């Protein structure tokens, strides 16, 4: 009864309820609060985090088994004391436990190697599964008839993973079998030898006690070894967990500055020979970029796909550090500024904006400035800025409408989600940096026009109050023509910069791209 109660409490409370919930929140905390985003974009890091997430319960189970191992150790000690009192030779039986332990360590290593080697395949098949069940992607998949092909990919990834893991499990099983067989054979032989040599002349009672205790020893050793190996299995998960913790610590120690950002920008933000290459890639995403974004200006960043526009934005948000060169904010290195404080003075609408489920429309906007998440006047103002009043009017409960159909709320169209993200980015009233990364990619032409006019006005008003710099990333040259400064990126290099007129006069890359776009629109 005690054992059952222990298992009930242990398994339910420790292994299922408290443990994983605690661990999952620790993992989420570490993953989501790091300054950088490298760990969310690198395959080998994602493998570790994936392994950790899927097997986090093993870590907790390992802790629970560790407690049981402790009990078994006490039990073992008692049996050994009793056996030692009959004959010290009988203590040799205990040494045999080393054999299955050693074999088990080999088995675990095989298991761990297979888990790590197949982590990418596991991630791939899960991603393909998510893709097939995602409503946005599934339309395209159905039209193109790619379901079967995706399934094939998914099955292939799954089969490769399962085969490799099964092979490792089989080898691990054989190692364990050999270990226990050797233990049992050695145990029986030693016991027979010891009983024959140490009990001659003793009473039948002594012999019975020795055999009974030895059998009990075998059971206790077996339980202790199994529990010990169970505890050690948690090491498979402990490794990525410890990696995550040490990665988080290094990241925090490296990246977090201490200085507060200035109350208002006086000179601006200067890029000084900034280079950045993503880890694991050969070509720099940004190369020797040197330019000053004057305080109070509207800066447009243009360039073809993959030219480095988003990378420049990521560096401004401190999601990555430049490999060399520096970014100076009114003469102070951005790296030296306290990251949270700097971000608190930044507003941004990214092209890959978030869609927060189970929030009301008001909350989805208010999240842009947590201190004012319940401030309806401010939310209404942000909604107006983003030209999203029409969306609110069309929702059944206005600002209080729950969003996300998958969670019982109302779903929005792509453009409506984008306007929500824009409204969120308009919540902060005194940013030093205002980033609009492809802010109108999902919007129709009239909305785009209205929004740009409003954001230009907002940029000018922010410029007057805090000297804020508004950075707009866009593929549409017509929308950036009114900017004070246009940066033209090509394969990570800043090839030109100046005003629209300067760049047209220079008749370089910008003028060429501008002419191509204008001709395309004229044709339309
Ligand atoms: N997380 C990453 N890991 C490795 N390489 C990356 C990563 N993000 C971007 N890159 C590479 O860096 C280069 C610049 O990418 P970036 O996203 O900055 O370009 P972009 O101009 O913003 O492109 P787009 O217009 O398509 O958004 C590209 O070659 C891209 O493949």
Give a description of the structure:
There is one protein chain. With 524 residues, the protein is α/β, with parallel strands linked by helices. The protein has 2 domains: 10-23 and 38-249, ABC transporter transmembrane region fold; 294-320 and 333-523, 3-Layer(aba) Sandwich (Rossmann fold). The protein has 21 helices and 10 strands. The strands form 2 sheets. It has a 6-stranded mixed sheet, with helices on both faces. It is elongated. The model has no long low-confidence stretch (mean pLDDT 82). It is found in: Cell membrane.
Quick summary:
The chain has 524 residues and is of the alpha/beta class.
CATH class descriptor name of the largest domain: Mainly Alpha
Could you give a short account of the major beta sheet?
Answer: 6 strands, mixed
Radius of gyration equals 32 Å
Task: Supply the CATH superfamily name of the largest domain.
Answer: ABC transporter type 1, transmembrane domain
> Can you count the helices?
21
Proportion of strand residues? 5-15%
Using the 3D structure, state the CATH architecture of the largest domain. Answer: Up-down Bundle
User: What strand order characterises the main sheet?
Assistant: 6-7-8-3-9-10
CATH fold call of the largest domain: ABC transporter transmembrane region fold
Number of strands: 10
């Amino acid at each position: 009864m005690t054992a059952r109660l222990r298992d009930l409490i242990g398994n339910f409370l420790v292994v299922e309820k408290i443990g994983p919930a605690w661990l999952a929140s620790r993992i989420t905390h570490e993953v989501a609060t790091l300054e950088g985003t490298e760990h969310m974009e690198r395959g080998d890091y994602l493998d570790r985090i994936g392994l950790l997430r899927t097997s986090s319960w093993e870590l907790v189970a390992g802790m629970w088994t560790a407690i049981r191992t402790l009990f078994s150790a006490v039990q073992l000690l008692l049996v050994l004391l009793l056996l030692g009192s009959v004959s010290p030779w009988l203590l040799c039986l205990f040494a045999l436990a080393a054999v299955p332990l050693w074999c088990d360590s080999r088995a675990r290593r095989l298991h761990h190697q297979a888990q790590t080697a197949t982590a990418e395949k596991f991630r791939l098949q899960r991603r393909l599964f998510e893709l097939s069940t995602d409503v946005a992607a599934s339309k395209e998949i159905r039209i193109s008839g790619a379901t079967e092909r995706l399934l094939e990919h998914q099955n292939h990834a799954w089969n490769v993973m399962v085969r490799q893991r099964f092979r490792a499990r089989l080898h691990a099983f054989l190692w364990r079998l050999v270990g226990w067989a050797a233990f049992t054979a050695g145990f029986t032989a030693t016991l027979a030898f010891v009983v024959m040599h140490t009990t001659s002349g003793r009473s039948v009672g002594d012999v019975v006690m020795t055999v009974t205790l030895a059998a009990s020893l075998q059971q206790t050793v077996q339980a202790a070894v199994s529990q010990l190996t169970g505890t050690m299995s948690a090491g498979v998960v402990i490794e990525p967990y410890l990696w995550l913790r040490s990665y988080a610590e290094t990241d925090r120690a490296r990246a977090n500055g201490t200085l507060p950002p200035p109350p208002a920008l006086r000179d601006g933000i200067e890029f000084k020979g900034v280079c950045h290459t993503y880890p694991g890639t050969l070509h720099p995403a940004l190369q020797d970029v040197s330019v000053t974004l004057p305080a109070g200006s509207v800066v447009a960043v243009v360039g073809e796909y993959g030219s480095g526009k988003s990378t420049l934005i990521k560096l401004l948000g401190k999601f990555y550090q430049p490999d060399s060169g520096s970014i100076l904010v009114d003469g102070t290195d951005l790296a030296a500024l306290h990251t949270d404080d700097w971000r608190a003075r930044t507003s941004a609408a990214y092209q890959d904006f978030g869609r927060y489920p189970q929030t009301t429309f008001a909350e989805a906007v208010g999240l842009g400035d947590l201190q004012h998440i319940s401030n309806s006047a401010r939310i209404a103002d942000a909604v107006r800025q983003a030209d999203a009043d029409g969306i609110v009017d069309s929702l059944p409960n206005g600002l209080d409408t729950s969003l996300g159909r998958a969670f019982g709320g109302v779903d929005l169209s792509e453009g409506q989600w984008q306007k929500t993200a824009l409204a969120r980015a308009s919540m902060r009233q005194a940013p030093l940096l205002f980033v609009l990364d492809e802010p109108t990619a999902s919007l129709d032409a009239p909305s785009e026009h209205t929004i740009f006019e409003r954001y230009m006005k907002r940029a000018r008003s922010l410029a007057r109050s805090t000297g804020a710099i508004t950075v707009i990333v866009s593929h549409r040259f017509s929308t950036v023509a009114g900017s004070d400064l246009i940066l033209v990126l090509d394969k990570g290099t800043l090839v030109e910069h100046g005003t629209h007129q300067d760049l047209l006069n220079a008749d370089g890359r910008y003028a060429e791209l501008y002419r191509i776009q204008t001709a395309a629109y004229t044709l339309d």
